[in-house]
Structures are given as structure tokens and as C-alpha cells.
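job 3f2a | input accepted
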Amino acid sequence: MNNDKNLNELWSGQTTKPPQIEELFSNFAQIKKKNLATLIAANFLMVATIAFIIFICFYFKPKLITTKIGIGLTILGIIVYLFFYNQLIPYLRKINETKSNNEFLKAVIKLKEKQKFLQTKMLQIYFITLTFGLCLYLYEYVLLIPFPWSIFAYLVTLLWLGFNWFYLRPRVVRKQRDKLDGIIKKYENIKNQN
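job 3f2a | predicted structure (194 res):
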């Protein structure tokens, strides 16, 4: 029991070292590298998706205008999102950890704002165009199957989109936001201690 008391006193009495600025820059460099890799992967996957959609369009030769509009909307949503998403690439490369501390903090805050714009407005536009595009695209093909199965096809599609919008998107957004918030908070702690 006495040992527990001594350990508790030692634990509560210990002082922690403030995070060093080099460690902070190293953490940010890892975040930056991961974001760039994610951007490249997203570009590859979305361009492959566009190519697959175009292949399906030429292979199945849709007859209804709704199918063609759906394909166009889906591709437009992907292209618009990619356009804004790719604007992060030069910005991420421009952020330099060797800049002055205030410039670095401003750059990280600006990156956070750009990510917030992408994660709110641009993702909304992307999901809206994707949802309408898929629904219009499916219309021609669900006409060929019995009524209960056509409802099932739409239901599964909308449930999958809803799962992505209400479950996966918030998790990814929170994870990215928390990383940048952590960098900003650590930087402010270091700044306040100096």
C-alpha cells in the first residue's frame, strides 16, 4: 500500500517535457506525406472510375436519355471534386517546416480551412451529383427487372450512399481535423511556453 502511495505521488508530481518544435515539424511532415499519398491514390481511383463508367456506357449502349444524363452527372461530380481536391497538392508542397513559426502556423490553419471546404461544400456537391447520377443511370436497367427487385436495387444503392455519407465521411473528416488540430494545439503550447 505504501508503494502505491509513493508511485501515485511520483506520477502526479512528475513534470512532462513540452513537445519540441522538431517533433512537431516531423509529425506535420508525416501528415503532409500521407495527405499527398491519399491525394494521388484518390486521383488514380477516381480516374479509373471515370474510365470504367465510360467503358460501361460504350459496352452496354444505353438507350434512354436518363441513363446518359446519369452518366454525365456522375462523371461531372467526380471531375468537379477532383478539380478542387487537386488544389491541395501545390499547397501541401508549398508548406515548409523551415519557415518562421508564425508562417508555419498560418499555413497549417489555412490547410485546415481548405480541408474544411473540401469536406463540407465539395463533398456535398459530389454526393448530390453522385446520388442523382446513379439514380438516373439505374432507371433504364431497373425497368427491365420485376418491380420489387427494382425497389431493392434503389434501396441498396441509397443505403450504400447513406452509409458513406453518414458513417464513413464523418469519421474521415474527424480524423483529418483532429490531426491538424493536434498540430495547431501543440504549436500553441510550445509558443505559450517560450
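job 3f2a | The chain has one domain: 20-193.
job 3f2a | closed
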